[in-house]
Amino acid sequence: MTESSKLKLVFKNAGGEDVNFTFSSADKNVESSDVRALMNGMITNGTIYTDVPVAISSATMITTTETEINVNA
């Protein structure tokens, strides 16, 4: 059994539309204060993105578990 986690960050752009960023191989034990700091940093440096994030909307940790099934028995 293997497990992987992704961090999905959702912002609003200047037009009020959602801007999504997903980071694979995320630490599922990350502190919310660290995620908030990351998101604030992304807003501060937003001009490097094509769709500039201007406001924090949400953050979600997505954990996927894979279990191999023996079908050759």
Description:
This protein has 73 residues and is an alpha+beta fold. The protein contains one helix and three strands, in the order ββαβ. The chain has a three-stranded antiparallel sheet with strand order 2-1-3, with helices on one face. Strand 1 and strand 2 form a beta hairpin.
Descriptive key words:
3 strands; alpha+beta; elongated; 18% helix; 73 residues; single chain
Topology (elements, then pairings):
Blueprint (H helix, E strand, L loop, with lengths): L1 E11 L5 E7 L7 H13 L10 E12 L7
Helix content: 10-25%
Strand segment count: 3
Residue fraction in strands: 35-45%
Shape: elongated
In brief, what are we looking at here?
The chain has 73 residues and is an alpha+beta fold. The chain has one helix at 32-44, and strands spanning 2-12, 18-24, 55-66.
